[in-house]
Amino acid sequence: MSGEALFGDDLLHRPRRELAPGAMWVPGWLRLDQQRWIVDRFHEWVNGPVPIRSARVGGHEMSVKTVCLGWHWRPYEYTREAVDVNGNRVLDVPDWLVRLGRKAVLEATGDPQAGQAYTPDTALVNHYDDAARMGMHQDRDERSRAPVVSLSIGDTCRFRFGNTENRNKPYEDIDLVSGDLFVFGGPSRLAYHGVTKVHPQTAPAGCGLETGRINITLRETGLG
Ligand code: SIN
Ligand code: MN
């Protein structure tokens, strides 16, 4: 293990912070045992009916690999079956993950009603290797404007959170560490965001991942 992983920023106090109205970063939200348990589930999902794969955007393969729950996402569209992979129906979003999403919205907003009302019906589970990135984009393939809940496990990444107008400045770069929660909703729901870098060998011991990064985003599609 590297010195950075042993003595990383996770040992410092990283207070929660609202980057913009509706965009809340809660460092260290998931405990290590919870992270590890989720990584075990991740291994079940990638061995499920639809294998993890890189989605194609405009003829290019994304560097990130994705496995979906509830609804299968490919650029611009959600379908129940993974029509661009093997045609199989994706696994359901498990109850525990819906409950975790509700807790996350409550944590971020402090609003018990917003937490209770949140019923994510899809989870996009992304795996990043050392070289993977995600360009600046909006999450706008959902009809619902309910918040997006993002959970990070494994290597730290540089996450760029921008404005709702375009992919350029103003934006802010933050380090999403294993266990961090990020929720964007309300006026920030359509903010551009991306991952500019993964910091290799920064996953904390005991998080369940030796290398690489997993990000889970929970969303309400608004589809019937
Ligand atoms: C995403 O925008 O879907 C993923 C963001 C992340 O990996 O943190
Ligand atoms: Mn996104």
Please provide a written account of the structure.
- The longest helix is centred in the first third of the chain and has 15 residues, at 32-46.
- The relative contact order is 0.24.
- The strands form four sheets. The chain has a seven-stranded antiparallel sheet, with helices on one face. It has a four-stranded antiparallel sheet with strand order 9-14-11-12, with no helix packed on it. A two-stranded antiparallel ribbon has the order 3-4.
- It contains four helices and 15 strands.
- The protein has one domain: Alpha-ketoglutarate-dependent dioxygenase AlkB-like (Jelly Rolls, Sandwich), CATH 2.60.120.
- It is α+β, with helices and mostly antiparallel strands and 224 residues long.
- Succinic acid binds at residues 124, 126, 134, 150, 159, 176, 193, 195, 215, 217.
- Manganese (II) ion is lined by residues 137, 139, 193.
- Keywords: Dioxygenase, Iron, Metal-binding, Oxidoreductase.
- Residues 119-222 form the Fe2OG dioxygenase domain.
- Pfam families: 2OG-FeII_Oxy_2.
- This is Alkylated DNA repair protein AlkB.
